[in-house]
Amino acid sequence: MPSLLAERTEPALNPRQEASAGVKHVSRYRNVAAKTGRGFVGVLLLAAVWELAPRLEIVPSYVVSPLSEALAALWEMTASGSLFDNIGASLVRSGIGFGLAVALAIPLGAAIAWYPVVRETLTPPLEIFRNTAALAILPVFTLVFGIGETSKIAIVLFACFFPILLSTISGVSSVDPQLLRSAKVLGLGPVTTFRKVVFPAAVPTIFTGIRMAGAVSILVLIAAEMIGATQGVGFLITYYQNNSLYPQMYAAIITSTALGLAVNYGLVGIEKRLSRWRD
To answer: The whole model's pTM is what?
Structure first.
């Protein structure tokens, strides 16, 4: 019976409306294809500049390897298996630091935005740390935790913490007041209101900070590994530079870029799954 009612209440599209919908559908996919094509052309142009600039001596070829040589070195490093060991070390460090930052920053940011007492107490010290560059205090982490894994994880945690914290505060604070009034009218308690109304509405803003933190987790870790490490992608970059193995150095740089892109697109996919309700 419900299905029959649904059929009655849904107006059928006439041929003109169906044709218009089909045209819009095709037009949308054409726009997506055009954007993808232009992006691909941009990447090809970048690759061409990288390949030709050192070969034409626009930049010194003895320090800037052509792209083809860097890719050949990347293939050799991949085939030998040494690259995967260093990628694994970097991903473990950045993953642990990033995960700890998410676990700590979201609850704290929600508490700061939700409770005025917490906000007034914690905002001044957090502002002090927020304006301190992560790499500036890397020596402190090294002195306190040593040159092992703990210092690398700690610097990633510190760098990722504040983008997530600030986005959480912004997301929770900017929830539509009408939603809060509706929750109060329905008799929802503070915990239920936050869990079912506030947090879902704040997820898009929170994920903006999470995506920023994901990129930061790779960038800061690479820099930390370049300063002091015996394994990792950052260590590879410094090692090949010190030994004048420039194609391998650029191969390691390409690897770090690929890791950053993979993390970003992975987080975008997670955000889409958690934000399906917006569609």
So the answer is: 0.77
What does the alpha-carbon distance between residue 94 and residue 157 come to, in Å, rounded to a whole number? 8
Q: Which of 200, 195, 191, 130 is nearest to 171 (CA)?
A: 200
CB 104 within 8 Å of CB 153: no
Distances (CA, A) of 166 to 107, 124, 128: 12, 14, 14
> Per-residue confidence at 164, pLDDT binned at 50, 70, 90?
very high
Helices 15-55, 67-80: crossing angle, 10 deg rounding? 100
| Cβ neighbours of residue 34 closer than 8 Å, sequence gap 6 or more | none
Say whether pLDDT at 100 is over 80: yes
Compute the distance between CA of residue 22 and CA of residue 35 in angstroms, rounded to an integer: 20
Residue with tokens 């390409």: 254
Residue 213 and residue 156 in contact, taking contact as beta carbons nearer than 8 Å: no
Q: Residue 204: its pLDDT value, please?
A: 83
